[in-house]
Amino acid sequence: MSYAAELDAPPRAANAFRLLWAGFFAILAAGIGFAIRGGILKQWETDFGFSAGQLGQITGAGLTGFCFGIFIGGLVVDRIGYRTLVVVAFLLHLLSAIITFAPGAETPPATAFNYLFWGSFIFAIANGTLEAVANPLVATLFPNDRTHYLNILHAGWPLGLIIGGAFGALFGEMLTWKQQMALFLVPTVGYGLMFLGQSFPKSEASSSGLSLGEMLKDIGLMGGAIASAFVGLWLFKDFGPTLDRLLDTNIFGTWYFGASIAGLLWLAIAVITGFSPGHWLIALLFVTHALVGAVELGTDSWIQNITGNILSPTIGKWLFVYTSLIMFLLRFTAHSIEKTLKLSPVGLLLGCSILAFIGLQFIARAETTSVAMAALLVYGAGKTFFWPTMLAVASDRFPRTGAIAISLMGGIGMASAGLLGAPGLGYIKDRSVSDTLRVMDKSPDGQLINQFKNEQPSRFLMFREVDGLDGTKVSAIRDKVRANKNLPDAESIVYRADREADRRVLRLDSVIPLTMALIYLFLLVYFRRIGGYRKLTIGDSEKA
């Protein structure tokens, strides 16, 4: 049977659609919480006097905790079952609400920071745990059309961004931050009730009685090295320094601690799999999904700010909602696109990467709202299918891995967004504006960069330190421009350098989907040479 002919086959269970929508509500809760938290940062800054760095740590905890939840959940879900992890995630969501809502007006800032940091981290663990359930569950329920139904499942994320973003924009001035944050509890109760009392199917790998070592063999040394490296990077760049600050130590945030843990994890995978090298294709999918995380979630964390700088902050916010709406609507169309255009999932990914490249290039050139909307339509259409379709490809081609491969992919994508994508684009912006300003500055000894630079230099991985601009000073310049006030020569130069840097960030960012397009083109040729893309079973997965 051809790939296209398989798309209309029925699901595996009578309650498949109820479980699908339960997972949709779970991801909806994550999206709403993410969007609301982004909108109330200013209130936390005002109420507790947090610095931008502290707000960034809280925001980061709301992302990287996801990796913790999905990595652990993906390893154990085939052993302990979907129901157990759903209960754990539901309780963690409730616990995160209790901890987050704990600080009051009289709470000392240091105590409030700990409450909000750990509340966000536990919220993210719950989200990751649920994805460790929802992704393999939907892949198991709809084995003949994983691309379509995984895209429907993940339509909950952009809908959450739409609801949370619009709710904050419309009611943010009327409600307290606790009242706004409580909105995520509505879909949380919804997914709890929808999962309640339901029977869950077993994955093909679990039904076959495969051991953990057998499930990990296709991942092996190659895929294990990539996953372990991201765990080590997470410890070094994110969770380790946070533990050091909380415990007043200098141990966990060091590179050798992160590298040691990564090495031990890799060694454990090697021993469990009998030193299996793994399959090169799954390693390539892991690397590609890291690029997906950087270009989708990493870019999303900046594009509202960038379009807001180029046009206006209000327009930037609504353009973000507009792009999320495009994603939400299109994620219901993967089935039709595949059938109409007779595309395999890899062909769909290739087309999307080309659209994302073109969209980012045109957003970088936008001067008006209408042009930005047209460019974001192209970019939004491009990024829509990346995440869920990548999960579908891994599940189609490596059924022996059960929930493990797609859970590791999800964690790698999120880690890449939080550790590489978002901070990398921030570094590129700082480096670009610094270099541009030095070229434009005709004053002796680079007085302009010294006058407007931030006190803290910008750092990223092993790249050289650069001087970014002071956000408060640049914001004041933008306010003058929007008020049609004349700028002194120095501020005019800074304003032009800042705008040019924003555009350069998007142009450089477009290299990521271009790289992905080359990878997908290679995979398209590869699958054609072996007889075409098809879904594999336990029996023939080793010949992928």
Write up what this structure looks like.
With about 550 residues, the chain is mainly alpha-helical. The chain has two domains: about 1-200, Growth Hormone, Chain: A (Up-down Bundle); about 205-220 and about 280-544, Up-down Bundle (Growth Hormone, Chain: A), CATH 1.20.1250.20. It is about 75% helix and about 0% strand. α4 (about 80-100) runs antiparallel to α9, α7 runs antiparallel to α15 (about 315-330) and α12 (about 220-245) packs across α20 (about 405-440). The longest helix has about 35 residues, at about 405-440. It is globular and about 70 Å long. The mean pLDDT is about 85.
Helices and strands in order:
Layout: H1 16-39, H2 41-48, H3 52-80, H4 82-100, H5 109-141, H6 146-153, H7 156-171, H8 177-181, H9 185-195, H10 204-207, H11 212-216, H12 220-247, H13 255-272, H14 280-310, H15 313-330, H16 334-341, H17 345-363, H18 369-383, H19 386-397, H20 404-440, H21 447-452, H22 471-482, H23 489-509, H24 511-529
CATH architecture of the largest domain: Up-down Bundle
Note the gap between the termini.
Answer: 17 Å
CATH homology group of the largest domain: MFS general substrate transporter like domains
Low-confidence stretches: none
Strand content: under 5%
Number of domains: 2
Secondary-structure-based class equals: mainly alpha
Please state the average pLDDT score.
87
Order of helices and strands: HHHHHHHHHHHHHHHHHHHHHHHH
The largest β sheet comes out as: none
What is the CATH class name of the largest domain? Mainly Alpha
Helix content: over 70%
CATH topology of the largest domain: Growth Hormone, Chain: A
- Backbone CA Rg: 23 Å
* Count of β-strands: 0
Shape: globular
